[in-house]
Amino acid sequence: MKHLNSLNAAAFAAALLAAPTLWAATAPTALGLAPTTSVAADDDEDEKEDEWHLVAGGDVYTGTGAVLRGASILIKNGLIHEIGYDLFVPEGAGETDVSGYRVYPGLIALGATSRVTTGRFAAEDPTWAIDPLSDPDEWMTSFEDEDLDLPTVDQDGFKSRYIDSYDPFSPYMTLALANGITACEQSGAAFKLRRDGIEGVVMNEDTSTNFNMRGGSARQRTRDGFAGAAKYLRDMATWERRGKPKDDEPSTRGVDTNSLRVLRNELDATFFADDRLTLLAIARLAQDYGFRPIVQGCREGWIVADELGRAGALVVLDPRERSWNDPESLYESGSSIENAAILHRSGCQIAVRTPSASIDTSGIAGRDLLSLSLQAGYAIRGGLDEEVALAAITLVPARVLGIDHRVGSIEVGKDADLLVTRGDILHYETLVDLAFVMGKIAYDKNKELYYAHLQPHQIAADLEADAAAESEDGSEADDADGDTDGDADESGDDD
Amino acid sequence: MIGHRHDDDPHRPTRTTFDEPPIMKRFTFAAATVSTLFAASALAGTNRPGDAMRALQPTLSSEPLPIQRAANEAVAPAGMVGGPGLALMSAKILTCELDGPGYVNNGVLLVKDGLVEAVGRRSEIEIPGDYEIVDVGDRWLMPGMIDLHAHVGGTFDINDMVYQANPGVRASTAVIPANPQLRRSIAAGVTTVLFIPGSGTNVGGQGVLMKTGPKTYEEAVVRNPGSLKIAQWGNPERWAIGVGKSHHGYIIRGTLARGRSYWRSWKNFESSGGPEPYVDPQWEVFRYLFDGDAQVSVHTQVHQVVMSTIDIIKREMGLDVFIDHGTFDGWKAGGEAYANGVNAIVGPRNVSMPERGLIGWTGDNPERVQGCAAGYWEMGHRMVGFNTDSPVIPQEELPLQAAIAVRHGFPDDGLQTVRGLTIVPATTIGMGDRLGSLEVGKDADVVVITGHPADPRSAVDAVYVNGERMYDASERRLW
User: Fold this and answer.
1) pTM for this one?
2) Is it true that the peptide bond before A20 is cis, omega within 30 degrees of 0?
3) Is A363 in Cβ contact with B407 (below 8 Å)?
4) Are residues B295 and B324 in the same domain?
5) Is residue B416, in this structure, part of any structural domain at all?
6) Are residues B129 and B170 in the same domain?
7) d(CA A421, CA A58)
């Protein structure tokens, strides 16, 4: 199962920290990718020159726990080829000097609206495409016609719909990149935010299917589906043990396909649930049938965290969720700011999503996709470790989407989707200076419309002072970016 | 009771806990009854007199109000009225005075009888022997935060669009003290809110300034009326057939002019006698406003209406007015506002977005992601605060408004953000002598927090209101 892959990858990274020389050699095998350690491996693509790029000298926050100070990342054809010090850099390689800066893996936004990749007039639902003013009759009937063959997430139609409407020139995409998002999920598909083309932007589709556990009858149906699928698998095993007698093969008739695929580790099971009882039912179902559920919402997860932890749930939550506890209930209820921390302590993996899944242009900042990094801060407020909070917007969302073999951390063999910042990405003052997608600069703060005017005050002051000093004594000033990360927290603790 | 007016100093800090509500001193009984009944019925959306009477109970009670609970106990907890003193020791105290460094490192805060008794470095402050000492370690102390644009003080029936100007309507009739949203506010360190009517009409009514922690109206209310809520362009155009900026200006000017006449007739009566003017609950609030005892809070979004706010309400009427709900490109008139003493409380639409390729909202096209607070600062405005417009933005996200401001260019090299959450709104609402900073003699509204309040990662661990520990995260963390 892919989650286990990524766990291995994380374990590898930890091991690699102790033995950096193994770095390039081992990680790709864990990821199931062709090793990219030698130039010779690309013989069949002789006519195409390899593209090399070096992101040099930054403090690399790998997203797996390791921090490599002043390390360099060598990128080959958009993938991370090597991480470390004193790397051999082929001739003709491009270089971006990021010394004094931090390098983070790109952030991954879950449940984004289509505005991010399709721009202003995105058609999220085919009925939206019907203009009520020009086509009032059709617009009215579009609500009544139950036989209308609308493509849904579970059917095939939507795939082409999204790739066809992908707009690499969308300013929303620039804004998303400017706030660190290099990949996002839209309606069950994982998109990479590329501004130089649409090749390979759909990273994954249909890796998950929704099951309903809300309410008694839905719970029973879902449980019956899994029971039938499990019985089928048992019968198959027995049949195979008996030497596969010809006339006795178990029938798939009446077996729920999705449940079967989940039990065969071909598909993830997603549940949208918030209340304690539904979450408990999900946890028990998952433990009974031995799969790891993805739980979206999970507002009251902190109450049944032990059970969810035992089920190894991947939880997608909004730490700012607010609902009051029920004063008439004998049990705990409602939201808790500590939800993420408690669930993580119990063994769940935490992915954080924002209260609004869109990009807000009406001026309300702080609740939309663009504040994903701040949103992780609220999980920290509730007690989550900073490291885990970073994973909650990088590696864990990648696992939820089944793309953790490609993105979500800085590891050899993965896509070179990197963020360059002056300070802690989880600090509210930190803006993204550079965003690399597939090894190419997709966003440069100083060259784009949106945030170029915003420079950290301390750095602006330092630069001015340096310039003044330089003009006075003619000597070259030190790099001003060295230790000023704009972190207001630190500035106050001097006494 | 008629004639009991203005015999006391209006600037005397009102101690509502131990006194009659100030409203009783200023309004005649008849005026209070009529106007509040009217307001209560209108706000509650009901004609049943019982409902209105229930809403009025705090105001109409002529019996001595219940004194603070703790004072009835044998020994009140430290810091509260009647109890021993409380000494809070902290690695950093954000004192937030308007002028000065605004912080003390390794400090002690002495609290006695619900007020700040002393604050300073540990070496400078002598802690009396009978004081209870609470060492919060490396957590910080700061004054309780103040939100001057909140709608969560009670029920939400505070946007009655009956007339285009409803100065007699009072939000105080809808107050539910210590309601769940206010519990969440105090858990975020917000101890005072200006609970105001909505912005569906040009004059929405009277807001009430109240504390978020106390469980009774009498304890919670700081001042009523807290402000007269006026709304400029950005919402009231949806009234009736739809009206625009010039009509808004006409209505606001007309209402204020009539209010001024009403105030003058009473002034003349008080100074030179003659026949007593009639009492009109619709206009009573203007006697506070033109006496300078309450402010006008103006829902002011774009620069045109910031200008007309300055022009009509400040220059023409001479009222104490501030920009509330400052958004979009209102900052363009920031220099003019500051020069005229009009403070800017900004949020929750705290940035202005370029329109190129995006959805245009206001016609303001800054060609960059422009922070509103940063804009005011760049125009030279130095009294910039923050508000949420809760529940549009949850009340507990007031500090986030400061974080967003800094993220978009607002400076924080002199604790501007912390001041914008505390002393700036306190001064703006005329309570700078009682709220908003940890200075001697002020209310002991103290927040114990793990770091800079603007940072979402900083958690509020405890909150004191009037020296009483009203929130303790170790019992259950609410936010």
Assistant:
1) 0.82
2) no
3) no
4) yes
5) yes
6) no
7) 10
